[in-house]
Design brief:
Number of strands: 10
Mean pLDDT: 82
Number of helices: 10
Strand content: 15-25%
Low-confidence stretches: 174-178
Helix content: 55-70%
Length: 380
Amino acid sequence: MSLLSRFPSVLMAWRNLGRNRVRTALAALGIVIGVISIASLGMAGVAINQQATSQLGDIANEVTITAGDDSPEDGVTQAQLDEIESLVTDAAVVEQKTNDTDVSSRGEDVRVSVTGVTEASELYDVSSGEVPDRLQTGALLSNSTAQELGLELGDPVEYDGQLYRIRGLIESDGGFGFGGGQLVLPLSALSDQDQYDSVTVVAAGGDAVTSIGDRLDAHFNTDGRNEEELLSIQTSADIQGGITTFMNTLELALLGIGSISLFVASVAILNVMLMSTIERRGEIGVLRAVGIRRGEVLRMILTEAAFLGVLGGLVGALGSLGVGFLLFRVLTGDAMAVLAWESSRYLLYGFAFAVGASVISGLYPAWKAANDSPVEALRG
């Protein structure tokens, strides 16, 4: 307090806030809610982005090939698969056919996606059982579906009238958008489908993925074809770029929603400061009458608004940090990741926004109080 005594306007502003603590607390509460909204939504966007990027890491060494927009076929033909295999000799080429079906057990049905593949070990890991290098018999089932239906290794599942024994349980994805049950069968199980829904090339690393993607794109979509896209060739870099663009847009949208809360809080502060200056009109008139200058009154009112912003911003930042710990714990499994600058910067942004919005909200009440005539103010 001795430090504040060196700045009379600051000291008066601090005392004025303490004179009506309920009103001060309610005004600061609006700022707290606004800061928590902005900072928490910003950190949620970062956590979702990190979670999505983490899952993308599982396919970072893959090139995914499907039918292109200009292809007359609905899938990848056998002739195109032969060309792919002739072009890619330094990586595994895994063709797949897909469908969906209901898996039944003990009176319950679960809808799952069906993938027919031979080189299952290139694409799947199991939590129990085995994945043969060449899946000729048997089936793999997602662990979550097996638990839901009470199925175990060796139990039969039926597809298209045929029974397949479960040989392995596929590890769960853990959640963001790629979930859902899966049933993996030998490619022969979907022999009624002439074309392949997709072909996956599993390369040694990121550089090899880029090289293979460029090679295939040049062969199928560029050479002598006037840029027609016969095959859609996506690498992890393409997918990462799409996810990054989407997440940036999502973060901006979330911040926009959070800003609305802080804008409403700013209006509340404007109202509180305006009411406060009207109630203290006589007091301010006395100060002006004894020689306090307009600038001093202006600084006093603006300091009150700034105190509200600092108080609400600090409490809001601490609350947001708690929310951030919870978000990162749930979405990424690492609560301490919230302390990284990429996410913690939103605490600083929220605090700065709170102080700035509060000072701006106090401009009009301060200007009005500073320019009020002392004589008129004393008359009430």
